[in-house]
Amino acid sequence: MRPVLPDGSAGLFRAGRRVKRSDIVLVDHPEHGLLVRKVATVSLQGRVWLQSMAHCPRSPGKLPSIEPDRVVGRLALKLRWVRFLPRLPGDQ
């Protein structure tokens, strides 16, 4: 599975807390700080359950639901950096 925001790319997030299932959101998690996650479900009371989008060893495991005010914004635009210069020998 390819990550939604691969290394070397960036995302622009639109501020707002109204999210729906399968939105990609930026959240200010109380224990883990800023995280980009996919919304698994939203309860009638507004609580948001998140899911990881790809396996990552640094990623926290299963996260409990969060309050809607922890949602910073929804993904509006993905930016992928394009390299215009050719790679040089030994260039990583």
Q: What do these coordinates show?
A:
- This protein has 92 residues and is an all-beta fold.
- Helices cover 0% and strands 40% of the residues.
- It has strands at residues 9-15, 24-29, 33-42, 48-51, 71-80.
- Strands 1-5-2-3-4 form a five-stranded antiparallel β-sheet, with no helix packed on it.
- A hairpin with a 3-residue loop joins strand 2 (24-29) and strand 3 (33-42).
- The protein is elongated.
What's this, in brief?
It is built from no helices and 5 strands.
Set down the secondary structure blueprint.
Layout (H helix, E strand, L loop, with lengths): L8 E7 L8 E6 L3 E10 L5 E4 L19 E10 L12
Antiparallel strand pairs: 1-5, 2-3, 2-5, 3-4
Tally the helices. Answer: 0
User: Helical proportion?
Assistant: under 10%
Record field, number of beta strands: 5
Q: Report the average pLDDT across residues.
A: 80
What fraction of the residues are assigned to beta strands by DSSP?
A: 35-45%
Sketch the topology as an H/E string, one letter per element.
EEEEE
Q: In order across it, which strands form the biggest sheet?
A: 1-5-2-3-4
Shape: elongated
Amino- and carboxy-terminal Cα gap: 24 Å
| Rg measurement, Å | 16 Å
Largest beta-sheet characterization: 5 strands, antiparallel
Structural class: mainly beta
Task: List low-pLDDT spans.
Answer: none
